[in-house]
Amino acid sequence: MGQITLQDVQKSFGPVHIIKGADLDIADGSFVVFVGPSGCGKTTLLRLIAGLEDVSGGKILIDGKNVVDTPPAKRGLSMVFQSYALYPHMSVRGNIGFGLKMAGLSKDETNRKVEAAAATLNLTPYLDRKPRELSGGQRQRVAIGRAIVREPKAFLFDEPLSNLDAALRVQMRIEVTRLQKQLGTTAIYVTHDQVEAMTMADKIVVLNGGKIEQYGSPLQLYEKPANLFVAGFIGSPKMNFVTGELARQQGAATIGVRPEHLKIERDGTGGWQGTIAVAEHLGSDTFLYVDAGPLGMLTARYIGELSLHAGDHVSLVPEPARIHRFDESGNALRG
Amino acid sequence: MATRQTQFLARALLTPAVGLLFIWMIVPLALTLYFSTLHYSLLDPGSEAFVGLENFRYFLTDPAFLASLQNTLVLVGSVLALTILLGIPLALLMDQPVIGRNIVRLMVIAPFFVMPTVSALVWKNLLMHPVSGLFAWLAKLVGLTPIDWFTDAPLLAVILIVAWQWLPFATLILLTALQSLDEEQKEAAEMDGASALSSFIYITLPHMARPITVVILIETIFLLTVFAEIFVTTGGGPGLQTTNIAFLIYSQALIQFDVGSASAGGLVAVVIANIVAFFLVRIVGRNLEA
């Protein structure tokens, strides 16, 4: 079991309010990703749940029990750190088994569990090596091994893939997701990378300035962003925002359209007119950065190859059903 | 061509410095070697004669030699043990965030900047003096008989003075080591359920193995040649109780005016230092390999 509930959790460092009251309900077995720009408090929130920081107010419930005054080790959570934080003088076996040793398990049982965990992560041949003799991906797996061997109620991941190169990151992303589904253990994962968030999460928490902006499934966030911040943060390339008269015609202060929801017409007269400033041809996609005069720079995405080049004149026609409308304070308008 | 010219120029420019250093080292060593084979007493000038290894036989069979060798080893070992065993907890304390931490650090480092002769004088006359010393006053305050340090426990007294001088060095090196310990490692240990003590034994102490080795090696080099503290406080006595090898050589040369024997002693000291270094590197040097 690993159901985690936050009730009005607050944290301040001196006069600086880092977390301004977070309420959250994380179901047992789900994979929840905290995402947001740097300095938004996502790592702090994770450390509060872990117990590495003390809350300034509010409650953290794990399986219904308030753990605010429980030391980290007694909360039944395990954490994978950004730097992996492996113990450099211990072998892989020692690293993975350290928590069990501290819990007072017998040597045989520790060994059995360590070997089972190592087998799950393909680390068996490296059990007697020191961390410095391993590659980045292997170190990452040792850090994960250290987390799973204790059979925790939940895993906490603090930007665990940020030190890996791009190819390895994609591979580890899949491995972590698969492992979590296989074990069925609740996981909380912190990242600043919205692609990681979209691909791994059952549910995403978007944080900004110490506040939860939106909590929902990846597609909910994509299709129905609650406000301007979420709309701009989720999705790549970023959503286009248009203000002024065009927005007012739609009864909103700002309207937003995703690049993939703009129809590109070569010689059209309708829609939004502009000149291509930059065209990026990826083969699978074509990205156009269009200078649309008073509307500013707009980004359009075409699936597949489109032979248009810088300087060409295009018109962009937004799909009416895919236009997001926001009021003055940035909140989404529905209906 | 350009590289060859640069290389030549570099060598030519380096030569005076290297040459001077070389002469600076080799002349005394050669002279010491030469003197060690002579009968050369300042009390009997003009009688210098080649005596082969006689000076070495004389120095090594001198009963004072074994006594001073033992004193040297006891002094080095005790000071090492004291500075490391006290240095670790001190470093741990100084690593804590307290008000005025910088001032505390400065105060702890201070003894290292005091000249050995001065600190020995302060200890001898202000602290350990059996009549007017601070320790005597403290002892009397609680109704004990003051200890006459330099009569009753002379070697211990010297050990305490030298350890006091070297404690800041050990503390400082260990403190920097503590500060380089990755915060996330400590947190990982905390998540793994390690108590403060287990965390110290399994995480902090292994991390400090290398700096401890450095402290042992550097301190040993200097502790083998402790002289000023002994000269100022006990003058090697009573009897031979605080005579170490360095002091014995001094007394051969400048108390007994036997330059030949002192030179032989100096070479013996070089050999002893090398033997100690050899064993030290074998025992603790493994930690230095990356």
TrEMBL record, chain A:
Involved in beta-(1-->2)glucan export. Transmembrane domains (TMD) form a pore in the inner membrane and the ATP-binding domain (NBD) is responsible for energy generation. The keyword ATP-binding applies. It is a peripheral membrane protein. Keywords: ATP-binding, Nucleotide-binding, Transport. This is ABC transporter ATP-binding protein. It is found in: Cell inner membrane. SUPFAM superfamilies: MOP-like (SSF50331), P-loop containing nucleoside triphosphate hydrolases (SSF52540). The keyword Transport applies. One of its GO terms (cellular component) is maltose transport complex. Residues 4-234 form the ABC transporter domain. It comes from Bradyrhizobium niftali. One of its GO terms (molecular function) is ATP hydrolysis activity. Belongs to the ABC transporter superfamily. InterPro entries: AAA+_ATPase, ABC_transporter-like_ATP-bd, ABC_transporter-like_CS, ABC_transpr_MalK-like, ABC_transpr_MalK/UgpC-like, Mo/tungstate-bd_C_term_dom, NA-bd_OB-fold, P-loop_NTPase.
UniProtKB/TrEMBL annotation, chain B:
It is a multi-pass membrane protein. The keyword Oxidoreductase does not apply. SUPFAM superfamilies: MetI-like. GO terms for cellular component: plasma membrane. The keyword Transmembrane helix applies. Residues 69-280 form the ABC transmembrane type-1 domain. Its main location: membrane. The chain crosses the membrane at residues 12-35, 73-94, 106-123, 155-178, 212-232, 264-284. It is found in: Cell membrane. GO terms for biological process: transmembrane transport. InterPro entries: MetI-like (IPR000515), MetI-like_sf (IPR035906). Keywords: Cell membrane, Membrane, Transmembrane, Transmembrane helix, Transport. Belongs to the binding-protein-dependent transport system permease family. PANTHER family: BLR7065 PROTEIN (PTHR43005), INTEGRAL MEMBRANE SUGAR TRANSPORT PROTEIN (PTHR43005:SF2). This is Sugar ABC transporter permease. It comes from Bradyrhizobium niftali.
